[in-house]
Amino acid sequence: MELRSKSGLAAVFAACIVMLSAVQAQPASRPNIVLILADDLGYTDISPFGGEISTPNIARLAAEGLSFTNYHTAANCAPARAMLLTGVDSHRNGVPNIPESIPPEQMEFDHYQGVLGDNVVTLASLLQENGYHTYLTGKWHLGHTPELLPSARGFERTIAMADTGADNWEQRTYLPIYDQAHWYADGLEHTLPDDFYSSEYFIDKTIEFIGSNEADDQPFFAYVPFQAVHIPVQAPKEFSDKYADVYDEGWTVMRERRRVAAEEAGVIPEGTQSTVTPGTLEWEGLTEKQRAHHARRMEVYAGMVDAMDMHIGRLMDYLQSIGEYENTIFIFTSDNGAAGTPLISPTGQSVLDQWFNRVGYETDIDNLGERGSWVAIGPSNATIAASPLAFYKFHANEGGLRVPLVMSGPGITQQGELTDEFVFVTDLAPTILGLLDIDNHNGNWKGEAMEPIVGSDFSEYLHGSAQQIHIASEPIGYELGGSSALFKGDYKIVINRFEQNETEWHLYNIKVDPGEVNDLRAEQPQLFEEMLADYEVWAQANDVLPMPEGYNRGRAIFRGGFN
């Protein structure tokens, strides 16, 4: 009897251990959030969207979730980031443009400072208030005074680069408009390690931050805004070399190759037409040396995307190892479209050449992408990254505004599917709150009036219980640096006043014509006038300021001189 009793107790004890282990292995009831933001990534730069660049980890997220092929953001970084983190229009959250580009005439107004206003609540603050650990590792660019750093805007642990960009290999600035690269850790000035490479470091610190609180069972929000693939485009040589000879046929061939691949993948409609972005060079008209230089720049660009994806995979593997992968919502997107920066040339003649020589940046082909080099892919290569869309960063065309969006994890029922539902950047913050069942602040935060979230919560769409995200009659306005657009249903009106010196608006059905080839203004004058009136109402309601006569973005950025 005594032996049977001991045996029974042992069995019960063993069963309890098994049950306890099973409970510990179960994910927390509230999901984690990993928000990954690439910088200047083009529409077809990732493999699920038709790109030739190897991105198996992003492809895995796409296979496990839902990819949005009609997602739109701002045409440059800071406004996109501010809208992403607040759900508030850029003209109301303080960041209608990057501060480096705002003309003095506009900076006299409080809502045109180019830094995140104190009249908005960040997603991080809302999640932190609801028991989430909040981490940021990467580019911030929403202010670098103490009250504007992410450590003061709801982020518990941070590694933040506060400028438009910085070198990816060492602590140095990448443009003469800055006297130094401004890095901060938890609100204090930060010195980078000697073995720094941006994509690797950001994931190292993200893993460190998550691991430091792993035992307390609180969920986390990890925001990882990479520097990849913002200028200077830099990558470890072994990644760039993987793409040797891939771009030797030039941008005309590669644009079409991507268009076909995107069509086959279902990312764009069958028969999508595209146009050649004005200013694109004739590949065959270049010398052999020039072609080799342009091709190598794209190899480095592909290598930087590839390296970013590899490091994303490291984070995914880590979360798998601690039992949190299945309980994590992943969101991958880009702040804006590909950058067509014409700041280096295979023949020299860059506005930055004297500065490059003075500070020791190299632009010759031998060292491109490695430590001490300075690389930009240039406007013609940018048409590959944006293919089959027109134009690129800074332009209100689809190439500047339409980027990939991939979402997977708890609450997202579709797996391996694509949707062409229109989504705007302000929709992401309320959707994350919806997925976590956290209340919107509704314009009041800790007893103070705040700008209300204007984006749409599409969490029910992700659950599979809603048929659409925006109704066809809902107008969504956009303006940045004098270039404007308004979306309504499947349609878009657009004008690029300063980037392209346009004087007339255009009308496109971007659902069937994402390449913006067929201007419908003459065919549908009633719809055009209706949408133009909608834009004027939106611009007045959001206090959109006119750009001063003679405005030039390049001159505005460099108005401080070459330090």
Structure classification: alpha/beta
Total helices: the number is 16
CATH topology: Alkaline Phosphatase, subunit A
What is the radius of gyration?
24 Å
- Tell me about the biggest sheet? 10 strands, mixed
Q: What's the β-strand tally?
A: 18
Would you identify the CATH architecture? 3-Layer(aba) Sandwich
- How are the strands of the largest sheet arranged? 7-6-5-4-8-1-9-10-2-11
Low-confidence stretches: 1-28
- Overall pLDDT level: 93
Residues in β-strands, percent: 5-15%
For the termini, the CA-CA separation is 89 Å
Helix content: 25-40%
Describe this structure in words.
With 563 residues, the protein is of the alpha/beta class. It has a single domain (37-557), classed as Alkaline Phosphatase, subunit A, CATH 3.40.720. The chain contains 16 helices and 18 strands. The strands form four sheets. Strands 7-6-5-4-8-1-9-10-2-11 form a ten-stranded mixed β-sheet, sandwiched between helices. A hairpin with a 2-residue loop joins strand 16 (483-488) and strand 17 (491-496). Helix 6 (198-212) runs parallel beside helix 9 (288-321) and helix 8 packs parallel to helix 11 (378-386). It is globular, with a radius of gyration of 24 Å. The N and C termini lie far apart (89 Å).
